[in-house]
Write a structure and sequence with these properties.
The complex is a heterodimer of chains A (about 290) and B (about 450).
Chain A lengths: L1 H8 L2 H22 L17 H8 L1 H32 L6 H9 L6 H12 L5 H8 L11 H29 L3 H9 L4 H12 L1 H16 L3 H6 L11 H11 L3 H29 L4
Helix pairs in contact in A: 2-14, 3-14, 4-8, 4-11, 8-11, 11-14, 13-14
Chain B lengths: L1 H21 L40 E5 L4 H18 L2 E5 L5 H10 L6 E3 L42 E2 L1 E5 L1 E4 H6 L10 H13 L3 E3 L7 H15 L8 H5 L5 H17 L11 H10 L2 E4 L4 H9 L5 E4 L12 E5 L2 E4 L6 H11 L2 H11 L2 E2 L9 H9 L5 E3 L1 H5 L5 H12 L5 H18 L1
Parallel strand pairs in B: 1-2, 1-3, 7-8, 10-13
Antiparallel strand pairs in B: 3-11, 4-11, 5-10, 5-12, 6-8, 6-9
Helix pairs in contact in B: 2-12, 6-8, 6-15, 8-16, 9-10, 15-16
Classes of the chains: A mainly alpha (about 290), B alpha/beta (about 450).
Amino acid sequence: MKKRARAMNVFYIPAIILFSVFVIYPLCKGIFLSFTNWNGYSQTYKIVGISNYTRMLTDNNVHRAFINTIIYGVGSTILQNLLGLGLALLLNQKFHGRAVVRTLVYLPVMIAPLIMGYIMYFFFRFNNGALNDVIAIFGREAVDWLADGNRGVTILTLVNSLQFVGISMVIYLAGLQGIPDMYYEAAAIDGVKAGQKFRYITLPLLMPAINSSVTINLIGGLKLFDIIMALTSGGPGYDTHSLSTLVNRTYFGSENAGYASAIGLVSFILIMELSNIVVKAMEKKEVDL
Amino acid sequence: MKIKKIIAAGLTVSMVTVLAACGSDKEAAPSGASDSNQGTEASPGNSDSAKEAQKSSSGSDVTITFATNVVGEKASALEAACKKFEEETGYTVDFQAPGESYEELMKTRMSANELPDVFTTHGWSVARYSDYLMPVNDLPWASDIDEQIKPVITDAEGNMFVLPVDMDIAGIVYNVSVLEEAQVDPDEIKTWDDFSAACEKIKAAGKTPVHIGGKDNWTIGQFFDWAAPSYYVTDAANSQADALKNGTFDTATWEKVAGLLDSWVKAGYLNEDSLTADYNSDIQTLADGTTAFCFYGNSAVVDARGVNADAKIGMIPIPAASAKDEPSLIAGEDIAVGVWKDSPVKNEATELLNYLARPEVTKGIAEAAGCKTGITTAQSEIGEIGTYLEKYADVETFPYFDREYLPSGMWDVMCATGADILAQKDGAIENAAKTMEQNFNDKYTN
């Protein structure tokens, strides 16, 4: 038996090699670089201790990006799941054109986020933007929608949520179709109202689906990148940057690769911890059929 | 059990082989490869792949990678020249024009010391790329390089590293019709006060005096690159050029530069969407006659003509900060091409450089860019732009401010602090000066 187990261990080697080369090594290198002042391309650098980490404490751009990242992550998760669940409940009913509506809701998922960002730029921009053209019909003055940082963050959260709501919808649809009808039939015999059915049958039995959907949405929102680059480029100034886009700008734009590595590492820990907390909290609420 | 072991061993070997192959996409040079590695210096972090020729350097098997930051008409002209070079020599030129991501890609490749065999240096041949480029002083066309561009591409030891196919002699571009309509005489604009007075007239005529496409951060940096020299270096009596190069940054002067932009925002001289418009809308409005001025080089004229072939676009020198000083022009690299000093096909890459230096080739590319050629053996026909360049031939030229007087990496700081001014954030001017000083000191001492 031991011999067999030893032989089976050989199968781990390819995965371990891949994981080491593409995850462990870059991670270790990133941790090391976060203690240097490397500019990202020169052949030399100095070790600067923890100064990159202490600098983060007083850097307003990092603070702003941190808050934005939480908004993108949590905001998108809430919106996507509420809308996704609502759509799934609706599209789980039988009606004409159900397949078409499902396709339409899922369609934006297939567009690359970068392209989605550019499409939305043409929608929200000040001059000749679709939204301003619409409000002009009602005699209202054009608004520079993306010129305000807070509004920019809200728009980015909305765009991200609407693009990926289809994923939540599909997960919830699968979850809903996995709930045996007998529970609803038993509830109907007992005279249970629709709201109570949802609260005491649908929701508890959907917990595995909610768990998956929340985790996927949260991670996606926390590492939001492409849509920001296409829609606002992180601007005005640094107002709509997420930690991911800030790492990119700090690394390549400001040529502070060491500092960018430190921000990246903090961002990695943040996403990992937040996801862990949420997953564990959701797991506790799961029920067995 | 035996079969499982064999499968496992096979999988492991194939995985290791695949990973090893990931490390290099280049084939080893066969014996008898040309001497293109001669003169290759050992440098820290230099990978062995430089020594492993990427393809046989004999005859038609040679592949030269050519990467450029330019796009559009310029890229097409360069690519066409490379195609003709391929026909003439039988070599293959792998032409890459990744556009906006070029700088990121080049920084990544510099960090790995794995550069393209030939590449354009987008203004940084000396400050950023000189350690990676082969000096060109001994090449046959080096003595023909235009004196106007020579100081920009020469380092302290007198080495030049690029072929300046053309040169970017830039002022402020303007729509002739808009200025005529607003009754502004461009020749009377000598100082920034004159410029502001002109903006007032243009605004009164219902046009946008200055258009900035701040969504593309670099367009904000353009303003500072254009305005800062007039405050820091163009006035010989009060020049801070030496101080900047010796690591001293004067915040009070930067407050004046930032204050100029701030005064325009407050006076309503900029487009309403200066924070969210992009470069394309700058060009669109310049071409369609709704904007008067843009802070771009001559390629903007070519781009504007692409939008509206009938657009009348002119150029004025950059105003001085005081009446005691004279207007100036910016001189910089436009399409400047160099050869990676450790290229495994250095000889062939040098052949390509020599080909691009031929007068008829240089002329064609420079005309596509709307610029003067960088070598005196060729003269580009660039229509009205040429007329303006001739008109201002005696105006003193200065290098791009950030490339010459600021440490590398300051460009992004200029763009970001400028955005705060456009957004009219509290204390934006003082903050801009303070942030510039802090970053200047950090980067200078690194």
